[in-house]
Structure formats: structure tokens, C-alpha cells
Amino acid sequence: MLLYIHGFNSSPLSEKGVVTARFMATHFASETLLQPQIPADIDEAIALLCGLTETAKASGEPLRFIGSSLGGFYATYLAERYGGHAVLINPAVSPQDLFEEFLGPQHNPYTGEDYLVEQHHRDALARYDSQAIANPDRFFVLLQTGDEVLDYRLALNKYHSCRLLIEPGGDHSFVGFEQHLPQIAAFLQLP
């Protein structure tokens, strides 16, 4: 199983989601790719992701994750809890510390969903935060220094013992992501 986890106010229809699906269909069509729409509610998101992971694990499938931004936070939690390998793209580090600016009304442009970000969402993020990386060999972290949303140095500090790819410039979307998909597939040990 490869579980692609999109970021905050995003969807599997984001550019990285679409490019990943196309790459998998072309090169690894026999592999299971899951790209769920992640609920805005943190506890619901974790329940969905854990359920998918537990089902795959119970059936003996290798666990593989790609997480972008907030999806990187979720992928970290899953890989630390269940095992497997995770590729993180400009991951959110301790996003509960950033949520002050997101409290209140939100709109997901992909799904059209309007919802509220409330204090309990921030508290939930804190509960699922992997403070330290216990299994650095499970992670490949892609960072671009020009990320205008998240400070890449926070991820560099948290994932310093992991495999890292740091590119100057770029932005939060990770410019040129598709060029790294063969390297990502190799790290995830896709057959």
C-alpha cells in the first residue's frame, strides 16, 4: 500500500496528488495507491488514516506513505506508530504551534467545504505530535528553502537524522516534485 496524504485545505486533486497517481499508474500499476480526502477534523483524519493503515498491515501489505505539509505530519505519526517508510514533502512540524493564524472560518478550494478551525483541533494536533523521531531510517524528507508557508529549518531540525534532500529556492508546493518520483519510489521500495 502507498498512502498519499495531502495537506491542509488541499485534496488528492492537488498537483502533487495528480502527478503521484499518474506516476503510479504508469510505473507501478499493480501497487495499491490510496489517496483519500482527509477530513478537516484532526481526530477524524487520524481515525481514517489509522484505519487504512491497520487494514493494510493486517493483510500483510508493506506500509508506504507520502505526506505533503500537514500530510507530512500525519505520515510521521503513522510511520512512527505502525512502521513502514514515509516520504515527507515540506512537512509541517508541530503544526499546533502555527494554528493560531488558522483559527476561525476556513474554505477548502478543492472540495468547496466551509468549516471552522477551533481550539480543540489545535489540542488534537498536539496529541498526535511525534516530538522526536525514534526511527530516522523510515523517513526521506524533501525540503525547499523558498517554502513561503513553513520554515524549512524547523523540519531540518526535527528530521536531521533522516535522509534529506534540500533544494534552494522553490516554494511550499515543492517545485519540480515530479522529477523526484523515481527516487521516492526507490526509497519506498516499490517493486
UniProtKB/TrEMBL annotation:
Pfam families: UPF0227
Alphabetical list of InterPro entries matching this protein: AB_hydrolase_fold (IPR029058), UPF0227/Esterase_YqiA (IPR008886)
Protein name (Swiss-Prot/TrEMBL): Esterase YqiA
Native organism: Shewanella jiangmenensis
Lineage: Bacteria, Pseudomonadati, Pseudomonadota, Gammaproteobacteria, Alteromonadales
